[in-house]
């Protein structure tokens, strides 16, 4: 499942990474996912959630606490860091959300993305 969200207020990169993680966890809980693999390109956020890095900024502590609360509700979760260069699909979703952001409307904008060939390979 892939989702793209735009933020209604300016956030730092790290705050936006946490926001994305939290929204993803909330969706996983809502649809009752039992086994979840999370791939993130933020070394800071992934390592803070794993307990490798300390949380030095108060603003991130709130996000970290909420993330841990949500993780407790999922039975089997694995977090992995993916280098930004190898995270093309997530980057495309982030760019789409930024371009489609409309802070004047509260209703979501639904965009379907499908893979389809125009002609069958045999006709090419």
TrEMBL record:
Annotated RNase H type-1 domain residues: 8-97
UniProt-recorded name of the protein: RNase H type-1 domain-containing protein
A Pfam short name: RVT_3
GO function term, MF aspect, one: RNA-DNA hybrid ribonuclease activity
Domain of life assignment: Eukaryota
């Amino acid at each position: 499942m892939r989702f793209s969200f735009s933020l209604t207020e300016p956030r730092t990169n790290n705050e936006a990474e946490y926001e994305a993680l939290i929204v993803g966890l909330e969706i996983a809980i809502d649809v009752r996912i039992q086994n979840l693999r999370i791939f993130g390109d933020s070394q800071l956020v992934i390592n803070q959630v794993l307990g490798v890095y300390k949380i030095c900024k108060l603003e991130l502590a709130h996000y970290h606490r909420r993330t841990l609360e949500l993780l407790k509700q999922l039975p089997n979760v694995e977090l992995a860091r993916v280098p930004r260069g190898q995270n093309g699909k997530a980057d495309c979703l982030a760019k789409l959300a930024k371009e489609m952001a409309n802070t004047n409307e509260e209703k979501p904008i639904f965009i379907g993305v499908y893979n389809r060939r125009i002609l069958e390979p045999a006709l090419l």
